[in-house]
Write a structure and sequence with these properties.
The complex is a heterodimer. Chain A contains 5 helices and 5 strands. Chain A is an alpha+beta fold. In chain B, 28% of the residues lie in helices and 24% in strands. Chain B is built from 18 helices and 30 strands. Chain B has a 7-stranded mixed β-sheet with strand order 11-12-9-21-18-19-20, sandwiched between helices. In chain B, strands 4-3-2-1-8 form a 5-stranded mixed β-sheet. Chain B has a 5-stranded mixed β-sheet with strand order 16-24-23-22-17, sandwiched between helices. Chain B is globular and about 85 Å long. The chains are: A alpha+beta, B alpha+beta.
Chain lengths: 152, 732
Amino acid sequence: MEVNGTVHQVDAAATRTLLDILRNHLGLTGTKYGCGEGQCGSCTVHMNGAPVRACTLPLSACFGKRFVTVEGLADGNELHPVQVAFVEERAMQCGFCTPGMVMAAKALLDEHADPTDAQILTAMNGNICRCGAYPPILRAIRRASERMRGGE
Amino acid sequence: MHEHDDDLDLVEPERYELLERPAYRFDVGRRGFFRGLGGGLFVGATFAGTPNGASARPSEPTGSTRPRPARREDLSAWLHIAKDETITIYSGRVEMGQGIRTSFAQLVAEELPAPLDQFRVVVGDTALCPYDRGTWGSQSVPRQSPILRRVGATARQLLLELASQHFDVPSGELEIAAGSVTHTASGDSATFGALVDGEELEAVVEDDVDVIPASDWKLAGTPVPKVGARAFVTGEHVYTSDLRPDGLQYGMVLRPPSFGADLTTVDTSLAEAMDGVTVVKDGDFVGVVAPDPGTAEAAIASIDATWNESREDRGVTDTQFSRLESRPVERMAWRTRTETHRGDVSSGLAEAAHVVRATYRIPYIAHVPLETRSGVAQWTGSNKLDLWAGTQSPFGNREDLAQKFGLSEANVRVQVPDMGSGYGGKTSSESAIEVARLAKAVDGPVKLHWTREEEFTWAYFRPAASINARVGVDARGRLVAWEQTTHNGGLTGLDCQYRVANEHRRFQPARADLRQGSYRAVGSTANKFAAESATDEAAHAAGKDPLEFRRDNLDDARLIDVMEAAVEAFDWGADKPNGHGFGLAVCKDKGGAICNCVEVAVGDEGEVTIVRIISAFEAGPIINPAEVEAQIEGSVIMGIGGALWEVIEYGDGKIHNPRLSQYRVPRFSDIPPMQTILLDRRDRSPSGAGECGIVAIAPALANAIFDATGERIRQLPLEAGLRRRIGQRQRR
């Protein structure tokens, strides 16, 4: 399986989750464990460009797929506009939900460059922020959307 | 040593003096400290109020001071300036999202002017940082703020004196700014690092050192960007559960099927036969250590255990409140029954024109920190332990570990990587002890990372409460009597904030069904739900508007200020659409004052939609407005969950909803337009902002639901209560 542009040979039981493989076998700890049942979004990664919950994806479903995790979002030292917007809007408190939020937001903006409120909610409602940083996260998403459309 | 009742494991850290521990010896002697830091200038500050045993007066011409040695155990914060310009602040607090790294740096930088990127904040390390009881009670800012300002001011003074000697000019001719000291007349200048290079200087803050008044703040008081934000968005920020030291193995604990079960037989032979698995058996504690999590899970699953489940009646969700009322205890941990009397409540009630009689019920709920608790432990030999843990109390954990394993505290080092939140739920040591036990059986580090189900089951809950109130009002709408008994819940927030001549308040500890402990704002979410609901009920009984009623009965200027700010922004007198209601609640907590005005819309089946929320908050001078706004907004949002939906369902000693798919917490779609007004009062002393925001939202929502529907819901969570009430209404 390809992760952030590098092809990995993974030797593990087919029932292990992608989350376990990423964190414990490949050492990519940016993707987080929050619930183990796809309810909190902390484990959001991209599979062939679409957002998925790594904690519910068995390894058997990962053969030949192309994955991007939060570690692979920036281009070298240059942060992705979504990442920049999150920093500028202070869209985090403890920061644990942030990788998942950033990944879900990026996938949303890749699909809808100028999303409506309803589209934002549909895309993001699977991501929980227990610290309650939802308002600045929404501001960050709108700001990133504007930037990516050349607005700023 | 702190008193700790093992049966009723209530950690209620309000009575800080009871958690006071004997002073520690500093782990590294003074020479060792400087060796580790490479020379430089060290400034320490005592706890406010302890006698300052030493002071420094750098008046000798050679540029080195000879202070009387500071007693390390008296020091509560320290700062080090290194020759490479790094200014490091050490505090025993921990960072869990409340932004103290940023605010601490701002406070010191205000007094000791240097670019913020020269500052490092080291927190949560028992080997490096000053002793601290624990990060709770919104105390980081109020306790550390005056100390850090004095530390910064002392460092500033010392650098000016060093420069004065260095340039051989009076210090009055020097200017200090941006990390350097300059002699204005000649233009000579030296950086802080250059001034301390080659020195080993030590000073302890004098109590009377001048600090910049808050009204003159230029840096503190501004929303400087969050320190370390970039690492959060790239996934580089390392939480406890992310640690992967060399040779790491993974631990897992065998859990009983219900609370209070005893292990009768256990067969671990299959687990022992697995490659790389170590089995740990110590009485009822059974666990495994394995090279990877999958093997650990398989090993645990292979264990054949029989348990003797408790035959005691362990309660169910529906009877939790009556059980609290019927099972009083004299003491819960160090908390005894507490009563205050003023005037004559019986006469007051007898003479009142209207009496509200009500019982308010607040259930057990869970903290649900997004990062479940985790720890990494590593032993060196059999008597030296290193622990990395997401805990709010590294020094508390250290003491507990030392006690449990018979070690000296000097041989236990606890470090807290910034953690994925706590909210009061991560003060205890159970996971630290578990991982230390597992690690003892192997060489090298072991990680334990609780599952979400374990987090919902084996951590402690917010105490449930049953609160009986009788409130008397005269014909003019003035409160004349207030009688309140809080069963379980807590003492915080039981105080009366209104003018009333006759009061009788009682906190009655009770035998709780579930393990309970501190939650954000401890007892206040329960007591203020009751008090601000009862206030509203009293207003309506007297035929008064809830705002007018509060205006007539409040004397407290801080409460009045936030209330007036909120209602103005809300437009309390505005027209409401059909099915909409307005609600108001105003409270104080931990020295801060919060008012929430809310508008709700209620559907035919009792579905509650929040239309908008106004919050007004005041807690003295604001160090970082962006961080304070984040804390208040975040607390209000968290409080929406507890107000409308959250409840722990249990029975037969089991938690029935230990998953996020079964326990509803606020999500994006639940958040209405919110406005947060911060009152910056530089004439007051600072209070913390981490908890106050959660205490008023539940009663404000209950009051709004009453306004919308005429239904008074006195039990949390509100939506379930409203649906039941509407269902009952429809069946009649």
